[in-house]
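[09:14] KT: can someone run the structure on this one? pasting the chain below
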Amino acid sequence: MTEPDQPDRDDSSHLADSPWFWVCLFGGAALLVLAYMGPKYAERQAGIERRYEARHRIAAGRAQETVDAGPRPLIVTLRPLVIIFGGLLLTGAAMLIWKHRPQSTSGAPTGDTKHP
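[09:31] RB: done, structure tokens below
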């Protein structure tokens, strides 16, 4: 039988019970998926944007214009998703560190407590 003030488990087993752990895990997994899918997305999006520009040139009657074939920056990127999921990862990690930091065991107040 354990004493009432002694926990049944050590602190490391409480890590997965924290919602911040799952926020951190989800943010990290999402960033890994974005890093893996990023090049495939960029290739596909570049083709979609080229077709979009071609349709607009045809509609405006400028189909015979020469088009610069060089690489152009994408209009729609994955940057907002990277920022959101990176923020989730950083927030989750910061909260995990803050919630699971070592507690002071001295029991003494940290301020100056001199009494005359």
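[09:33] KT: thanks! Residues 19-59 form the longest helix (41 residues).
[09:34] RB: yep, looked fine to me
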